[in-house]
Structures are given as structure tokens and as C-alpha cells.
Amino acid sequence: MKKLKHKKLWLSSIIILLVCVLFTGAGFYFFKVACVPGKKSFLSSSSKVIKKSDPLYREKIWFKKTAKQKWYIESADEKFKLDANFIPYKTSNKTAIVLPGYMDTKEDMGEYDALFHQLGYNTLTPDPRAQGKSEGKYIGYGWPEKDDVKKWVSYLLQKYGQNQQVVIYGLSMGAATAMMTSGLKLPHQVKAFVEDCGYTSVKDEIEHEAGVLYNMPAFPRFPLVEILSGINKIKVGYFMGNASSVKQLHKNHRPMLFIHGSRDNFVPTKMVYPNYNATRGPKEIWVAPAAKHAKSFSKHPQEYKRRVATFLAKYVK
């Protein structure tokens, strides 16, 4: 009888150990998929050919032909060299910091640089750490990058003058970065934010993608996302649930414009509402009809420009 009990206990221990090894292995696999830079099968590859049929053809051609200054800083934790484009607008004292999305680079943000240039802004567009020409080991989904953005603001003011009025704009992951940055103590020169299709938290977005990309039900999504979050804590320095746009927005009192496509399935449209409700400053929201993820500008170019221009004109003179 004792031998039988010992055998059952031994078998149970082996099974538990194997399950733990399996889930840990899966956690490391998904960490590599989500957080290590490289080609991502779930991202559509964008063509570099600019077609005249593109609704943003004029903006993209302008960006391609426009001279760009190269700016560099060290990341906030002083581990990596970060790279950015700076495009001056005459002698303007207004600058938009333009933040790219997940696995995008500063070169992918040309139409947004053009948009702000049309509104009379200089643009400072950095590659996030581990993307484009910036150094880095892991994609931080906006949480470590928020401190880099604050450092870019300081560098801009030091290099270009304390009379600068700064707007922080972000798209997708860049939008989450902008919202997370809004909760930091920032120089008074930061006047407003514009976020387009940012998520409520890193954990929320990872859980959503696990369901959409892998059809993963509640189990094993839990505990797999928790294991992934623990690996992220070890590798990147934070638990994914703590990287919350909503929590940071609760500390923000500056103006913010929220934009989201009504047909966004990558960062679901419903996420814009808790973000919008969380901020404490003046705010406006626009859900762009029939627009998919990060496509509000191309779907409604004139309306997009009008809404951004009208909102910012109230706070940046």
C-alpha cells in the first residue's frame, strides 16, 4: 500500500514538473515572438513603393525628398544609442515628437511628419529601442520607451531652445508610449498629446493577441500570459500588467486627443474608451468610421488633419 502511494506521488510530481517545463518553454517561445526584434509573421509587410493611388501619396513623396537631420541620445537607462530624424520647419518654435508603432521605424512615419510639417511644426521622430537604427535587445511596448521620450524632450529643449512648444504624437505602440509618457513629470513645454489606436495596457494587448492570433481560450491563456509577464520582468524589467496606459493617464492633466479606427481588430476599438475616461486633462475623442488598425489617416486624410489641427490650435499658439 505504501509503495502504491509513493508511486502515485512520484507520478504526480513528474506530471506537474513536465507541465511546468511545458508552460515555461511556451512562455519563452511567446516572449521571443512578442518581445524579441525580428520578422513577425503576424504583421503584414508594407511595400516601399509609393503609388499615386495612395491617399497619402503627397505626404509620403514629400518625406522621401525632404532632408533630415540625424539626432542621437543614449537611452534613459544609458544602455543603448537611440537614433532619430529631425526635420525643421523654418524657424518654428513648435515641435511634434512622432512615435512609431510596433516594429515600425522613423522611416515608416513619413506621412505623419508631413502632416505636422503642414501644420507648421518641426518633427522629431525617434526609432524606439530595438527598432530601426536604435540599439536595444527587446521591444518594450512603450514602458521603458516612455523614459526615453522624456529624455528626447529634454534633448530637444537643450538643443533647439527652451521656447519650444512640444506635442507628443504616437501611433499604435507609439500611442501607448505617448499615453504612458503623459503620466511622467514633464517640462512645462509639453503642451498636448495625440494618440492613435493605443492599447490600455501591455498585458491587455498580449491577451487580446493570444486570442486573435492563436485562438487561445481562457486556459491556457492563463497561466501562459502570467509566465510570459514573469519572463518579461526578468528580461525587460517590468510585469506587463504594470505597463498600463490607463494608470498613467490617471496622472495626466495635459490635453489629449484620442483617435481609433472603428474596425480595429489588432488593438480593439473598445480599448479607446477606458483610456479616454482615465485622463484628467482636456480631451476629445474621434472614432474614425470604417478604419482598420492605424489606418484612420489614410482612410480619412482631410478629416484626420482637420481634427488634429483644430485640437492642437487650442493649446499650442
From TrEMBL:
InterPro entries hit by this protein: AB_hydrolase_1 (IPR000073), AB_hydrolase_fold (IPR029058), DNA-binding_regulatory (IPR052920)
SUPFAM superfamilies: alpha/beta-Hydrolases
Any Pfam family: Abhydrolase_1
Residues spanning the membrane: 9-31
Top-level taxon in the UniProt lineage: Bacteria
A GO term, aspect molecular function: hydrolase activity
Domain AB hydrolase-1: 113-210
Keywords recorded for this protein, A-Z: Hydrolase, Membrane, Transmembrane, Transmembrane helix
Tagged with keyword Cytoplasm: no
PANTHER family in UniProt: ALPHA/BETA-HYDROLASE (PTHR43358), ALPHA_BETA HYDROLASE FOLD-1 DOMAIN-CONTAINING PROTEIN (PTHR43358:SF4)
Name of the protein described by the UniProt record: Alpha/beta hydrolase
Biological source species: Lactobacillus kullabergensis
